[in-house]
Please model this.
Amino acid sequence: MSRRKIIAGNWKMNKTPQQARELIRTLLPLVETDEADVVFCVPFVDIPAAVEEVSGTNVQIGAQNMYFEDAGAFTGEISPEMLWELGVEYVIIGHSERRQYFHETDEDINKKLLMAFEYDLIPIVCVGETLEQREAGETLSWIRSQIEGAFEEVPEDLARDTVIAYEPIWAIGTGKTATSEQAEEVCGYIRQVIGELYGPETADVIRIQYGGSVNAGNAAELFSMPDIDGGLVGGASLKEDFGKIVNYK
Ligand code: PEP
Model:
C-alpha cells in the first residue's frame, strides 16, 4: 500500500493575520507538489486570511487546537463548528505543548478526536515521550497508552482517516532530531498498535508523521522510512525551507 505523504506546518503562536498573508504568499510557490498533502496549521485568528490566501492552491488549512463541545459557556475556547465554517480541514489535537502547558489529558484528547470527526475535521493526533521516559526504556509502553487513550471508542471508519504525529518531546524545538531509525521504530510500533486495535487494513492505510526538528537537511531521510508518511514541522514551517521539506525528494 502506498500511502500519500502529508506534510504539515505547525506555526504555533506566530504571525498576525497580515504577517500570515505575507508568509503564505512567499511559501505558496515553494510548496507546490502533486505528491503530498500540504497543510498550514495557523493560529485561530489567522484562519480567515489563510483560507482566503490558499484558495485554489494545493495547500489546506489546519487549526492547532479546538474544544470538545459544540457551543456553550466555555470562555476563550473555539468549537469545531467554528473551524468547519471557516473552511478548516485539519486540526492538531494533543500537541505536547498543550499537554504540558495546558494540562490536556488523554481523556480530553479522546473527546476532541471524537468531536473533530463530527465536523469533518481531520485530526492530527500528537503522541511522544519525554527524554526521561526514553532513557528509562518506557517509550513504547507510553506511546501505546497514548494511542489507546486517544482512540477509545473511535470507530474504524474514522480511525483510518486520522493522522498520527509521533513527536518525541525531547526533539521538539530543540534542534535535536530523532535518528531515522529511532523515528521509524516508534512509527512502526504505532502502526502495530493500530493494527491490534483495528486490524491490518487500517494499520496499512493510516498515516503516521514524524515531528521534532525536521528541517531541509533531514526531511528526505526521515520521510523515506517505510512507516513515516511525512512530517509535522514547527520552526522550519515559518521559513522558505518549508518548500524544501515539502519537495524533499
Ligand atoms: C512541532 O511543533 O510540532 C514541532 C515538531 O516543532 P519543531 O519542528 O520546531 O521541533
User: Anything to note?
Assistant: The mean pLDDT is 97.
